[in-house]
Amino acid sequence: MHQNHDSFVEAVNNKRKVFLIFFCKKANRHFASECIPVDYNHGDKTKGEFEFYRFLDDMISPKGKLLTLSTDKIVKIESTTASFDSKDLAIWEETVIDNQL
């Protein structure tokens, strides 16, 4: 679980966007974006699953990109005052970022 997990949960419950900073190994750099928090999965290591968070980043694409980030790639999650509508979650394109453990 990420150290800012409570901010993630607060944002989901209050339908607030989050300010997200994450590291992309492929690009070898950090990215920052305001995103919609979607969900969290603690994973089951006995089944080879990893822990991850998902965010909808509508700044990447008009449809929005679903970012799936393992906990170790996330630098910061901070709840913002910007709200989102649940209908914003209806359509997205999935992007998995560096999930090799």
List the helices and strands and how they pair.
Elements: H1 5-13, E1 16-24, E2 29-41, E3 52-57, E4 65-70, E5 74-83, E6 93-97
Parallel strand pairs: 4-6
Antiparallel strand pairs: 1-2, 1-5, 2-3, 3-4
In short:
The chain is mainly beta and 101 residues long. The chain has 1 helix and 6 strands. The chain has one domain (5-97): SH3 type barrels, CATH 2.30.30.
Number of helices: 1
**CATH class categorisation:** Mainly Beta
Strand content: over 45%
Structural class call reads mainly beta
What is the domain tally?
A: 1
Give the beta-strand count. 6
CA radius of gyration: 13 Å
Q: What is the spatial order of strands in the main beta sheet? A: 5-1-2-3-4-6
- Globally, the shape reads globular
Largest sheet report: 6 strands, mixed
| CATH architecture descriptor | Roll
And the CATH topology? SH3 type barrels
Q: How confident is the prediction overall: mean pLDDT?
A: 84
Oligomer: single chain
In the predicted model, the low-confidence regions spanning at least 5 consecutive residues are none
Please give the alpha-carbon distance between the first and last residues.
15 Å
Order of helices and strands: HEEEEEE
Instruction: Please bin the fraction of helical residues.
Output: under 10%
